[in-house]
Automatic annotation (TrEMBL):
<keyword id="KW-0479">Metal-binding</keyword>
<keyword id="KW-0645">Protease</keyword>
<dbReference type="InterPro" id="IPR016047">
    <property type="entry name" value="M23ase_b-sheet_dom"/>
</dbReference>
<protein>
    <submittedName>
        <fullName>Peptidase family M23</fullName>
    </submittedName>
</protein>
<dbReference type="InterPro" id="IPR050570">
    <property type="entry name" value="Cell_wall_metabolism_enzyme"/>
</dbReference>
<feature type="signal peptide">
    <location>
        <begin position="1"/>
        <end position="19"/>
    </location>
</feature>
<keyword id="KW-0862">Zinc</keyword>
<dbReference type="GO" id="GO:0006508">
    <property type="term" value="P:proteolysis"/>
</dbReference>
<keyword id="KW-0732">Signal</keyword>
<dbReference type="InterPro" id="IPR011055">
    <property type="entry name" value="Dup_hybrid_motif"/>
</dbReference>
<keyword id="KW-0482">Metalloprotease</keyword>
<dbReference type="Pfam" id="PF01551">
    <property type="entry name" value="Peptidase_M23"/>
</dbReference>
<dbReference type="GO" id="GO:0004222">
    <property type="term" value="F:metalloendopeptidase activity"/>
</dbReference>
<keyword id="KW-0378">Hydrolase</keyword>
<dbReference type="GO" id="GO:0046872">
    <property type="term" value="F:metal ion binding"/>
</dbReference>
<feature type="domain" description="M23ase beta-sheet core">
    <location>
        <begin position="314"/>
        <end position="411"/>
    </location>
</feature>
Amino acid sequence: MKLRYLVAGLALAGGVSSAAVLLSNAMTKEAVPVALTGIGRWEPDTVAPLPFDDMVDVASIVSRSDEVPALAVPAALNIAPIQIALPALQPSFTTWSREIAAGETLDAVLADAGLSAPDRAEIALALGVEFDLRRLRPGHSLTVVTTADGRPKRVSLDVDDGVQIEAVFGDRVATRVVTPAPDVTTLAGETVIDSSIFAALEDAGIPARFAVDLAQMLGGTVDFRRDLSGGETLKVMWREARVGDAVIGEPDMTFAALDLGDAVFEIVWPEDGSGRAVIYRDGAVMRTFAQPVEGARLSSVYGQRKHPVFGNTRMHTGIDFAAARGTPVKATAPGRISFVGTRGGYGRTVEISHGSDTMTRYAHLSAVPKGLAIGDRVTAGDVIGNVGATGTATGPNLHYEVRVNGRPTDPLSDERLTEALRAKDDDGTALVQLAKARSGFKQRLANAHMTQINGRL
């Protein structure tokens, strides 16, 4: 019971306290001013409708559940990505180059380039695949491209006639021969002989080596010591192969005319590749000579000479034509094969019989056509072998002989082969070739004079 009185007393005390707090709060609040009371009752005036004729009732559109306004999707921007090419990182290479000096070996030159012994040996093996390093001589040049660590990347050897032997090193070694494509130009010149053909050609800017060719082609017909007294006119037309300003190989004569006053000798080399030169005297065919190696240089003549191998003076029973190994060798007249094989110092040899008393010999050959046998008939211009250096020879060349009744004779003056060739020739065709050569010479000589005049202006 006492507990019940206690709870009731506490409830009564709490009510009295709450009432006191509320009465206290009400008594402490101040009266609100009249001005503020007016502001609290302010309302905005009615807004006038906007001055548009066609108003859209958005509410009515939204209320239509069956018609949803289509929202236009903005077109996507077509932005092309910008391709920025980053520069490729190239490895650092060093290039070293110089000419071969007299007496130098390839190994010595490579050592001068700073290459190690193993690298030098590898380079020598690579270049040796395509080039006989024993033929290295002054004037050749070597270019070495190395990587940052000093290893060879590319090595090129520039040799004769613009030919380059190139070796490239990497995962594997590749070697190739780079042969330039030359521009062939036909030139013409005219000179007057005062002391010698050699000096006259040299003074006129004509290749002086033609002096030997002319002396041998007209051998037995013109005595160059007795018949040349001075004042004779010499005309020459020739072809040169050039790569840039450099002459590649030996120039080839296509026409020559020697005016001795009482006789005019002319030589025409046809352009059909047969190598058969026709010699004319005063406009008439005198004899024909078929050169066994087209475009080759006459390197040794018939007669007494100092032997290039043994060093003593002995009779040279033929003439030699210097040419690259493998150059085709052609029969100089029609006949039958009388020998195919090896003859001591002659090396690999082919002999052709032209009738009962005349024979031609082709020596130092590197090869003969497969199946070529004794008794086979050949005509002038047929290939019967390839230039080589077999037997006693200092380098690739053809030794060519003409023998009559077993005795050697000068191949450039003997008339027996000429008779064999003339039997197959048409003099009318030869005269047409002469007229064409004369016309070509005049035209090119006039062009040369015009070039000189323009150069002086």
